[in-house]
Amino acid sequence: MKKIKHIKSWRPSGSGQQLRFWVQFAFILLCLWIGVEFTLWVAWHQGSGGIALSRPAGVEGFLPISALMSLYYFFLSGSIHPVHPAGLFILFAIIAMSILVKKSFCSWLCPIGTLSENIGEFGRKIFGRNFGVWRWLDYPLRSLKYLMLGFLFYVVFFGMDALSLGQFLSSPYNKVADVKMFIFFRDISQFSLIVLAILVALSLVIRNFWCRYLCPYGALLGLTGLLSPFRITRNTDSCIDCAKCAKVCPNRIAVDRLKVVMSDECTSCMACVDACPVRDTLQLKASRKSRFVFRSAWVAAAVVGVFLLVTGLAMLTGNWKSSVGEAEYSRRIQDINNPIYQHNQGSAPQE
Ligand code: SF4
Ligand code: SF4
Predict the structure, then answer these.
(1) What DSSP string describes 123-168?
(2) What is the pLDDT of residues 180-235, one digit of tens each?
(3) Cβ of 248 below 6 Å from ligand 2
(4) Is the C-beta atom of 207 inside 6 A of ligand 2?
């Protein structure tokens, strides 16, 4: 508990930020639980210990490319592909919450976002501040994540029809993509470790380095978030121009100079609202005249509610567990080094 209090002390203050901390903390615990369960499950099938648990389907939330392909397959064929359906529903949930309250997934649930935020805050403790990239460099760097998303869209949406998508999703490679990802991190190469260390070092000095410049998932949610009717709105009559809102914004948005925050980078974190000393000057709402104001508790309820609703719907309708059974997984995991499980230049080998 003492450690948790210590972490909380270096984060932005305010009741909304306390709430956000606990939501992020609960989601990290959920991800850790999935990670432990999955580790034990793989070890069991590899015959190296572990426990005979069933595979946690939530692990498919870490397969965003497979989920994106499943989404497109769903649009083309009208049916849910039975391999990794949980990944598709998690993607549905994340897109739905961003259409409702912008890129809220990034600042309320995403474990990488949470990690990135805390590394940045830790860096601020060490160096006394976070550093920013020059504005002339910031814009081109921010477009990198959109370029990566564009490349993914090009490969998936323009290069594949329903038949080839279905073939890819049913391929041996995709069936064990989660196990391959796990093995990648378990037996991480020196090169990948160096890349990770560089990203951590950059995140220490530049807040949210990964999220701001490189995450294609964040780019997708930034675009879908533009559809959200709710925006941070500043009452210029009551504003005292103290700039506290801009100072705490993790995404370096000049909130103090805008009437309405239209930015694709806003994650509805509510840090600016919490920091504002003049009551009701900053509000998350549909328009300047709107009476309905989204308070932090409402954002938390919306984010968690949408996530539970969509994933719960998948479970209730029998679209949560993969069609790949335990016996098939066992056979494939024991043969995981077979070339049929190697992804080669954009194509997945078939059996
Ligand atoms: S504008 Fe406000 S809600 Fe949006 S990211 Fe910045 S601090 Fe968070
Ligand atoms: S923190 Fe509030 S009062 Fe200060 S500049 Fe921002 S909106 Fe205006």
Answers:
(1) HHHHHSS-----HHHHHHHHHHHHHHHHHHHIIIIIT--HHHHHHH
(2) 999 999 999 999 999 999 999 999 999 899 999 999 999 999 999 999 999 999 99
(3) no
(4) no
